Fold this sequence. Notes:
heterodimer; A: mainly beta; seven-stranded mixed β-sheet; four-stranded antiparallel β-sheet; 47% strand; B: five-stranded antiparallel β-sheet
Amino acid sequence: NAGVTQTPKFQVLKTGQSMTLQCAQDMNHEYMSWYRQDPGMGLRLIHYSVGAGITDQGEVPNGYNVSRSTTEDFPLRLLSAAPSQTSVYFCASSLLGGRIGYTEAFFGQGTRLTVV
Amino acid sequence: KNEVEQSPQNLTAQEGEFITINCSYSVGISALHWLQQHPGGGIVSLFMLSSGKKKHGRLIATINIQEKHSSLHITASHPRDSAVYICAVIGLPGGQFYFGTGTSLTVIP
Lengths: 116, 109
């Protein structure tokens, strides 16, 4: 089935541990992005990519790393987990439409991460 | 600063009521999305629009580009409509999403 596959769904980490959240899409979307969602706040952009080999920082990039070696995959790495990174993380993808505008955005199911 | 403001933050309605959720934004955009997030967390895109009006079942979304405002209407609301509704805009020129904080809707039978 076409869509965005995000794993894992839940994760508990100890402070200082590292991990990678996986995100894959099979719709040939150029634009992929990672967000975190915290209570009382809108989704905030961590990093995004407009195509393979191209990544850029969003609003809250510190403590996170990304790469885009293929169109399909856009993993998010937590380098040294901190309690402040306890959040729900979403990956999303969409086509880049240039002057036409963007098509529908597709979201992964979310990862609930707890850092203790 | 919030590029996208939604109102109300919380809304409780009786089943069958007509519901309106508003979204105002302050940046130039190429498109606006209305998203739905159910308890349990998954996010689904309801509409993507850049002008005018779209309708899908009992849901209607409108946008006024000049006024930088969009509304999401739900006709004949039902308890299964209970969710958080999020307005998101795609800003120009960079193409980044800006999100509202969401409207939590509860529809009571």
